[in-house]
From TrEMBL:
Superkingdom: Bacteria
GO molecular function term, any single one: ATP binding
Enzyme Commission number(s) from the entry: 7.6.2.11
Keyword match ATP-binding: yes
ABC transporter domain mapped to chain residues: 6-241
Family named by the database record: Belongs to the ABC transporter superfamily. Spermidine/putrescine importer (TC 3.A.1.11.1) family.
PROSITE patterns to which the protein is assigned, alphabetical: ABC_TRANSPORTER_1, ABC_TRANSPORTER_2
Function (record text): Part of the ABC transporter complex PotABCD involved in spermidine/putrescine import. Responsible for energy coupling to the transport system.
Organism: Saccharospirillum mangrovi
SMART domains cross-referenced by the UniProt entry: AAA
Alphabetic keyword roster: ATP-binding, Cell membrane, Membrane, Nucleotide-binding, Translocase, Transport
Gene: potA
Pfam families: ABC_tran, TOBE_2
Protein name in UniProt: Spermidine/putrescine import ATP-binding protein PotA
Amino acid sequence: MSAKSVHLNMVTKEFKDDQGKTSTAVSQVNLKVEPGEFVTLLGPSGCGKTTTLRMVAGFETITTGDIFFGADNVRDVSPSKRDCTMVFQSYALFPHMSVYENVAYGLRIKKMSDTDIRSKVNSIFDIMNLRDYSARMPAQLSGGQQQRVALARALVMEPGVLLFDEPLSNLDAKLRLTMRDEIRRIQQEVGITTLYVTHDQAEAMSMSDRIVVMNQGRIEQVGTPVEIYQQPATEFVAGFIGSANFLRGVVVEKKNTQHAVKYPMGILQQFFEDDQAINGEEIVTAIRPEAISLHIEAPINLNGHNIVNGMVKKSVFMGQTQEYTVEINGINLDVHASNPISERVFTVGQEVSVAIPYDAMRKVN
Ligand SMILES: Nc1ncnc2c1ncn2[C@@H]1O[C@H](COP(=O)(O)OP(=O)(O)OP(=O)(O)O)[C@@H](O)[C@H]1O
């Protein structure tokens, strides 16, 4: 199997309703997926991720723009002639065929010899630990096993590009965790270019080389899971991936990359990349709750932090974390402290010193 790149160039999809009114589901999407890369389209319901995937598969026409597999423009190529296979949420197995026959089906259509089919199916069964199930019928398999058969059926065709549309949605929470590890393991073992759609951020973070965050038909940000989490480009991305406090303020002083910004809770210092903000500019800053720490009194020798006084308004035990809401000059900040067993737990009404690292404050507008 030779992994292909996928390149979406200014891809737009418009739908017309019964009255002839046009709505834009996907707008001017540019994306390059490298050969062997695992890229996830992530976003809320209706943001256009499934429509984007279906255009790559050829199930949906493109209104404007082009899609390339390697150097080939597949815009006008029918789905069966594109070098890609889609794995669906519903598995779509043939109920009257055994596991072996389900996986062999596509190769039989290609008129491959029985010997070649047996060798290809068995090698996929080995990668996926499915040999023991080969004689079973789909109804005799669990949901997770059916999904593995669906994946085996896609992989045996050795497509240049593998597409997944929310493949784990029908599985229970525990099985989803196992399956996402398994899909990632197999994808890396086979080295296949993969485009994966989900609205589940944990799934996207744990499986992907890069994540494409979509909102209202547009790409908000493309980056590695770490980049998306630590350097969210927009307020939407910071709020959609993980949780964030948002502060609105005005830049009052700029010294190289360090700035003083006036927020309702007071003047705070933060770093900006060059040219990211100018004096007088109104900005929105995101701060992850786990980046903030609470102390009984103002810590000394804690460089690079804003230290402000606050009062604990809420303190909730969440197992791995203790989640606080702290009020600072009338503004509420969420703070997540890890491992409350070894850390001290602050109580509601307690006065605390709040430390906010300069570099945890990320301008998102
Ligand atoms: N065949 C269609 N006709 C008209 N509008 C459509 C059609 N398919 C999708 N849409 C609209 O396009 C937009 C994007 O839909 P899409 O299914 O791509 O979103 P999504 O991000 O995959 O959402 P979900 O996670 O709910 O599946 C939505 O507003 C949807 O209503």
